Amino acid sequence: MTPPDSLVLRVAGRPVARYATRPELPARLSPRPHLHPVTTLAGTAVTELSPADHAHHLGVGVAVPDVEGHNFWGGRTFVRDRGPTELDNHGTQRHTGFRLRDPDGFVEELRWAAAGTELLRERRTVAATGLTGTAWALDFTFSLTNVTPGPLSIGSPATNGRPGAAYGGFFWRARKESRAPKVFTADREGESEVHGTRADWLALAGRGSPRQGGAEGGGGWTLVFAGATGETRRDPWFVRAAEYPGVGSSLAHTERLTVPPGGTVVRRIVTVVADGRPSRDEAAALVRKAVSQ
After folding, report:
1. How far apart are the first and last CA of the chain?
2. pLDDT tens digits, one per residue of 93-123
3. Helix, strand, coil percentages in the chain from 3-state DSSP, rounded to 5
4. Which residues are bridge partners to 71 per DSSP?
5. What is residue 3's predicted lDDT score, i.e. its pLDDT?
């Protein structure tokens, strides 16, 4: 039975993701709507919710660690010359309603608020589409509009002095297994080679586990992330594999992103969710099909 504050996305009648609209979470986790669990068509889970290593990682969603100093990512805040610091600065993304709600997707309205002030309004469009018998695509678009009378500055730990930590924006926390997943693009391989670079698509490939249907080293699972607009593709990828499996698209990589009053930031990420291990050519073909639909 689906909880009252969540909905289930389906592909050809098969459930592939649950979306929580009003999760009951501590303020320190920056409560926000999110997708979890997300599964392959064979039923393998490819997300985690509040894992032990990072309790503020909430499946799939939009998380930003610094909006005018307010933390919409969760956990500690990176402060220049101090490092990760516990601050009472966490914001909340509040679901205000659906403009559209179907079995395969929705259009949602949200408000981003912190310290009693609304900073951003978001329109989020999410759709699940079948691709093949072993792969489907999650199409995720978010539009953030500054509703304050002045400019809003979006930052990351990287822009605040922590090299290599430009997280903030679309983020997918993948499932952690006994071995780190493989990371590759069309022409690069490995976390260190891919992290912080721009690429039309990026793949994260795991091994699977006995409790998820198949022995480790068996069929496994693969996520292929693609920026579906020119502006999205200009954002470098944030990648973690060895410490934990996660992929995001960086809104503020080397410089803060300023949104003028009434201005809107729009990004669209399409993620192929596949059983097995597609080759580079197969991954590229799946992305082309997913983006064109």
Report:
1. 31
2. 999 999 999 999 999 999 999 999 999 999 9
3. 10, 45, 45
4. 90
5. 65
